[in-house]
Amino acid sequence: MKTSIATVSISGELPDKLAAIAAAGFDGVEIFENDFLAFDGSPADVGRMVRDHGLEITLFQPFRDFEGMPEPHRGRTFDRAERKFDVMQQLGTDLVLVCSNVSPISLGGIDRAAADFYELGERAAKRGLRVGYEALAWGRHIWDHRDAWEIVRRAGHDNIGLILDSFHTLSRKIDINSIRSIPKEKIFIVQLADAPLIDMDLLYWSRHFRNMPGEGDLPVTEFTRAIAETGYDGYFSLEIFNDQFRGGAAKPIAADGHRSLIYLGDQVRRHPDARSLTVTPMPERAVVKGISFVEFTVAEDEAAELVTILRTLGFRKTDTHRSKKVDVYRQGDIRILVNMEEGGFAGASYAVHGSSAYAIGLVVDDATRAVERALALNAEPFSQPVAAGEVEVPAIRGVGGGLVYLLDEESDLGRIWDIDFEPCGEEGETAPAGLRFVDHIAQTVGYEEMLTWVLFYTSIFEAAKTPVVDIIDPAGVVRSQVVQNASGSLRITLNGAENRRTLAGHFIAETFGSGVQHLAFHTDDIFATATALRKNGFRPLSISPNYYDDVEARFGLEPELTEKLRAENILYDRDERGEYFQLYSPTYGEGFFFEIVERRDYAGYGAVNAIFRIAALKRQLRPEGLPKL
Ligand SMILES: O=C(O)c1ccc(O)c(O)c1
Ligand SMILES: [Mg+2]
């Protein structure tokens, strides 16, 4: 499998696009005609620039409204084609994409189109060029790859082939089995794009909402597998029309694109019928067994504030690091590490972001293999020196430049708590409150980074993404999407903030970047936990009384239950399977908070309650409200 991407997928001017595409590791690039026309260099200059980056031009496109034209238009389309052939020869590429005709004056008829392509094939052959035909989902007569293939088949010319584009086929839900019988030599190139499922006009959907394979909801993996089963092993080229990507930063978007293709190739190759696809093998996605720890970086003189909150939540200091200023606070299976080092990465993170949960530790099935996979997917490795005899835990850079440590139970990593730490046997002044494990970790990111992190987590770890839900903040919308595994041992909620007046946006602005904004702990009995917390001096986030009247009416709750919820400031939700109870802490620092949940067979995250929680947090964070911009 060779990787390519269309210039239209990336923002910037042609030289910036090419630099980003090359840096991301692609083998080739599709030159989109407008990118070339807008550039004030000759076709030969562009060709040279591409090759200087070590890239190959995989395709020149698109050539529009060609087949089935009545005279005198027909004659002119052939003249136009000859002009494009001139450009292609100067660029140094032999393949052009003809997309199906959308002109109202074009005539239908498979044989008529086949005859036009035969003639075009004759002209292309004289110059050693090839022509690929693609069915646009909104073509006037041809909008199905099966019809495009029939035209190519009837043209019967070596220089005429088919171009398959996942978007056009999958947006129309065309049976992908039809691909399996196409001879691989007749597939000239494959274009790939995913898209979120949105019910809208096909052309508008295609031109504005495509995204990288794995970022959307289309069955791109099955599509690619059907192609691999023909024996095709040529270029897979991303062609992503996306408004957000057009305005985004070129390098990270190109990097996401490359990651999406490697991930896709890896999934496809695992199928026994798709073995002809050449992809470098990598370990399977890592199975996350649990969250081992969450680590905060704080300045030593500010640690007391965090520690006080932890104690009121019922945590106890159980261990201290043998050589570093790191304490472990425990409750149930939860470990919170408080790192007060001034040096190293923790100190550097503090200097940039202030107090923050900058690292998470995941227990996986095999940490070495997990790291190997992450690196194969171009994750950024992290390491820093450890003292002699201490365990070096492998890590990769995650959201906001923070760390994801990878541990397992099989190697020495499983003994890190005995090796690197010593018990401090401290007696707690406060009592445990029944918190058992981390239910979820909520990371707040810029809206434009959401897809990056969804792809990061789902490609490295065995996990799936949920549909995006809109969270209504009084100052704007925050989009929320969850990455989770089937067992629930990995649940990461990603919240994408569009403006800085939302609570999420404020958090990003004040902590100078994306990061963990809240941690949710699981309890088996939220009312018992609430009582225990109250005894510890914990003050929950105070919820508007109006909320409880509404909840009682909405769900038909017994008044006694509503009273208990109101008395403890507990939020309530229900889905078709079960019930959900949520209790929040006030904010710590610039918008960080803790949540306690009881899940009774409930699958979601209480999104409908978010507006009430956000309003309450904002009241508490700045009684006079967040600054208006
Ligand atoms: O939106 C379009 O017009 C367009 C053009 C060329 C393509 O390859 C394509 O998939 C769409
Ligand atoms: Mg296309």
Automatic annotation (TrEMBL):
It is an enzyme of class 4 (lyase). The keyword Hydrolase does not apply. The keyword Lyase applies. Mg(2+) binds at H440, H518, E595. Keywords: Dioxygenase, Lyase, Metal-binding, Oxidoreductase, Pyruvate. Belongs to the bacterial two-domain DSD family. GO terms for molecular function: 3-dehydroshikimate dehydratase activity; dioxygenase activity; metal ion binding. Residues 290-409, 437-586 form the VOC domain. Its EC number is 4.2.1.118. This is 3-dehydroshikimate dehydratase. A divalent metal cation binds at E134, D165, Q191, E239.
